[in-house]
Amino acid sequence: MSQSTVSEFSQATAVTRQGDHSFTADLDAGWKVAGAVNGGYLLGVAGQALRAVNPSTPDPLVISTFYLGPSREGPVDISTRTLREGRSTASYGIELSQNGAPTISAMATMGNLGDLPDDVGTTATPPQLPPPEECVGVAEASEDFKKAAPLIERFDMRLDPATAGFAVGKPSGRGVLQGWIRLIDGTDPDPLSLLTFLDSFPPVMFDLGRFNWAPTMELTAHVRALPAPGWISARLYTRNIAGGMFEEDCELWDSAGRLVAQSRQLARQPRG
Q1: Residue 90's closest CA among 119, 67, 56?
Q2: Which residues belong to the signal peptide in this entry (predicted)?
């Protein structure tokens, strides 16, 4: 993709400043799932607003978001408040509202990933995946699935065949999904698109034979490094289902084999 071309993702998450701490945006219907705007896409919109508040701290380091109600396509009001601005990081509160009612409320710490030390010590290992061309393209889903989740057409998403059995009625029962993801227009990943990728795969509960969409209650995302160009590989899993809720953990790895983002969300257990 030409560097001078504005990506679809940048256009869809763009915000307009209304005041020192207020913005508006127009939520795009192409990023919906199950009738509501996707939570990961909303993180991208929030990230754009926080980046505009303080250009010297352009990257989300951590954001913890409570989803208070469904967001719909169309206008949204964004308000921010400064909690602390330091030399290398800044912390903010942020709310998105529609028709006077908040739909998400979040706290975030922003920084500059390019200025962080490059030392890495980790015991985490990337998912072992077949190459993308040997994985199952989500774009091949049924028309009914695409209609329910137009979001999936915003990505080139490929699922590991070992975790894609749910698509033919044969979930593995392990509570694991893994695969590859990139933006559909070929734009290389950046910290804001990583926020969106963390909540863009089908719910991990699909691998347990529960096929309804699972609304997120809270999601905490950590962005750990600037991603290298190319595909992002992902692993999602759940280990505890209780009280009508479950956690979903997600890890994102870049083409250089580095863990670049992590998240945990608490979601309501889908019925059926």
Answers
A1: 56
A2: none
8 A C-beta contact, residue 60 and residue 110: yes
* Architecture per CATH, 8-114+128-268: Beta Barrel (2.40)
2 vs 105, residue with greater confidence: 105
Whole-Å CA distances, 29 to 69, 187, 197: 17, 20, 17
Sign of the C-alpha dihedral, residues 31, 33, 39, 40?
negative
Tens digit of each residue's pLDDT (9 = 90 or more) over 238-256:
999 999 899 999 999 999 9
- List the end-to-end C-alpha distance of the chain, in Å, as a whole number: 42
Give per-residue pLDDT as tens, 93-115.
Answer: 999 999 999 999 999 999 999 99
Domain ranges of the chain: 8-114+128-268
Burial class (CB in 10 A: 0-12, 13-18, 19+), 272: exposed
